[in-house]
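Lecture notes, structural biology module. Today: joint structure prediction for complexes of two components.
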Amino acid sequence: MMRTDQAVPPPRIERGEIRVKQTSAKPESAQQAGSGPAMAVKGLHKSYGDQKVLNGIDLTVGSGQTVAVLGRSGTGKSVLLRLIVGLQKADAGSIHIQGQEITNASLEEMNEIRKKMGFLFQHAALYDSLTVEENIAFPLRRHTEMTAAQRSERVQELLASVGMEADLNKMPSDISGGMQKRVGLARALALEPGILLLDEPTAGLDPITSGEIDELILKLQEEREVASIVVTHDLQSAKVIADRIVLLHEGNAVIEGTFEELEKSRDEFVVEFFKRDS
Amino acid sequence: MSLHANMPRRYSTDDLPQPSVAIRSAAAAIWNPINGLLEWFGELGMFIWQVLRSTIRRPFEGLELLRQLDEVGSKSLPMVAMAGAAIGAVLALESRHSLVQFGAKSMLPAAVVFSIIHETGPVITGLVVCGRVGAGIGAELGSMKVTEQIDAIEASGVNAYKLLAFTRIVACVLMLPLLTLAADFCGIITGWIANTAAEPIAFHKFIHAGFAGTGFSDFLAPTFRTMVFGLIIGVIACFQGMRSQGGTEGVGRSATSAVVLSSLFVMLADVILVKLILVFFP
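The predicted structure, tokenised, for the full assembly:
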């Protein structure tokens, strides 16, 4: 992997000033960004052999909205995120990102769309041959024309936002799983994406750090109108950050609504799900 | 309790394996490995296509290519040089005994040089790089695959085929000929040392006698051959690494299969290329 460059005097980068490089791949089907919901998933199906994982999921997320996806393990929550970011192909259905249909997008088109999205993996997936700083600088090096000093400043700012500014030069193997997750979140935020996909952002974190991550997501929601899908098992976190909650069961969205609406539901599965956690 | 409860059970034809089931399982035993092999080649073809189409767009990953050239070239050099040196010494010692018996002792320098340049140097280099680089690439990419690092690269809008596979393949293709020259050089030097230990001969005389019948085409063809070896090692090691699955065990399998398959294909390619070289460079 790449190494960071030598430092030069740092011109200050204000929030929202990061210019992401565009390649020549311009999707023909692209509509104007911002004309509809940030993300819209319709009739999404995914199977592995005989096992149906997603069975016609519909989901819409507007700018500045956070939708929490709950469900038992193995119900396809992470698969849903992987389909949205294009790491896997859906069997049927459509996915629109900022008005653009992506299920038939070419790799080059998909890479352009991915620059608008930040993805936090369940186990952080940090590049283990790079330091914490280099991990966060990776998308900045690839997709912006920032100088080394500007990158360094942006990395420090991102690390400070997740409380990791002291661990700049550590390798991922030298920090705990929770810290790796925070670095992963900082990396996902590096390009100031309009869409965030978070796969269990608070799993394995202590309650204080979980609270800090929740606050950070809320802040992004309010200040930058980021549209987020958060896959989680943490009901407390879902209650704090989510505008709406979708509960998946056997490949279907059994219920969708606010936390309070779901709490009041008399559906047997919903009642069981919420009872187990309380 | 039934009267028949303690009586031995009578076997019927239903207990025997059904012919159709037996035939089906035998057919499956034959078909499954063939199907697996066809699938493997199909996936390999798709992988090569993905790598090829990734190369036509910017960025061209120059920094990563330089890092891989160092990884494949500089770091393999000591091992390749030692292997070449050992082979050169052994060739001189073994050949000397036979040539003395036939009264052709003066042919020893030519025998050592010809053997090293034409066959031993390229093949030994290829196999050493298979072991060191093939295992390294297989394990590194396998580990990145199972820990979702390759997915993370793709999710950040970067072409993983170009960044990870293309750079490693090109590094193998470019470095194999240079490593072969190093192995050849060390082999010829130790061949002379081994020969001098038995019967002193001046270095310039050894070299002059050794290269007397050697022309440019004697270097060109084996050098081209090692580029093909590099291509095979790079493609197979990257492919096996990037399709790794199943945790740490899967990483181990990727590393092992990268070495075994690339060694097998290098030996197979050697046979085919030697035949082609004899046709085109008689």
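Point to remember: The two ends of chain B are 90 Å apart (CA to CA).
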